[in-house]
Amino acid sequence: MSAPCCNAHSTVPVEARDVRVSFDGQPVLRGVTFTVPHGQLVALIGPNGSGKTTLLRCLLGLQKVSAGEIKLFGQSDLQKVMHRVGYVPQRLALDRSFVLSVREFLALRLRKTNNWFWQSHKRTDELIRATLAEIGVEPLFDRPLAQLSGGQLQRVLIAFSLLTKPELLLLDEPTAGVDTPGEETFYELIAHIQKQYHLTVILVSHDLSMVYRHASHVFALNGVICCEGTPEQVLNADSLKQAYGIHVSPYEHHHHVH
Ligand SMILES: Nc1ncnc2c1ncn2[C@@H]1O[C@H](COP(=O)(O)OP(=O)(O)OP(=O)(O)O)[C@@H](O)[C@H]1O
User: Fold this and answer.
1) Contacts of 1 (CB under 8 A, 6+ apart)
2) Whole-prediction pTM value?
3) 239 CB less than 6 Å from ligand 1?
């Protein structure tokens, strides 16, 4: 109920207006407009090839838009605010001979242009250990990165993105089935760190049951934002048909199958 004030979160993390991208004359994003307020866990859903990764890449300034405007934290020069943004890619292709350990890989993230050599190794290690512990993978500290399982690597990539204390986290859904039995699922982990770090999260997802359970808001993308709202509002047969163009069983129905 407090009045707007000048705290760090007073600007809207993400605003996109009429964003357009084409590849070889083929429009992929055909006028995408949306806003993400602070503290949301937003799921971005849509069929294969609907432009979800392209949209994340636009938000990261990695993909040039042919029209429209993107502002992060009120800033349209995205490079100026990239230090406030973390990104976890869909996958990272690593050669088995890649030699860095988890610790060495994460230390790269903490490298500062001026004081890297003067930064205490002890402090770096403490921060790395604390971040790994936060996401439940501290024992991986000394393991070679190239030997990790898909789920372990995904968690290390999350740690990598969290080390610089981002305010906005963009995640492209990991390959299905990376969760280790007995551990919290990828989605539970994201929901946990979102609260812990007071983050705004945009998560590209194909797992509608997880979206239903954990997202606070959903955008269905198919070249444009077809529908948006709470999971209850978006994950129903009509909205999903609009987004996917085919009949997709809404999440609630899965419960009634048995
Ligand atoms: N750099 C590129 N050059 C040419 N075409 C591209 C490029 N990047 C993406 N595309 C095309 O744009 C469309 C959207 O791709 P994008 O990866 O954004 O979809 P997506 O919704 O993330 O798909 P998925 O759910 O399969 O990961 C696809 O047809 C893809 O082939």
Assistant:
1) none
2) 0.86
3) no
Structural domains of the chain, count: 1
Distance 53 CA to ligand 1 centre (A): 7
Spatial separation of the C-alpha atoms in residues 204 and 245, rounded to whole Å: 19
pLDDT tens digits, one per residue of 54-98:
999 999 999 999 999 999 999 999 999 999 999 998 877 777 778
What is the CA(50)–ligand 1 centre distance, in A? 7
Task: Give domain status of residue 214, yes or no.
Answer: yes
Ligand 1 center–CA 23 separation, angstroms:
9
**ipTM score of the complex?**
0.97
In terms of Cβ atoms closer than 10 Å to its own Cβ (0-12, 13-18, 19+), residue 8 is exposed
Q: Is residue 7 part of a domain?
A: no
Residue numbers of the domain that contains 238: 14-255
Backbone region of residue 13 per phi and psi (left: phi > 0; alpha: psi in -120 to 50; beta: other values): alpha
Which residue type occupies 10? S
Q: Would 5 be classed as within a structural domain?
A: no
Residue 70 sits in a domain whose CATH number is 3.40.50.300
Report the 3 state secondary structure along 15-68.
EEEEEEEEECCEEEEEEEEEEECCCCEEEEECCCCCCHHHHHHHHCCCCCCCEE
Q: Show Cβ contacts of residue 74 under 8 Å, excluding neighbours closer than 6 positions.
A: 11, 12, 15
Q: Is residue 103 part of a domain?
A: yes
Residue nearest to atom 1 of ligand 1 (CA): 23
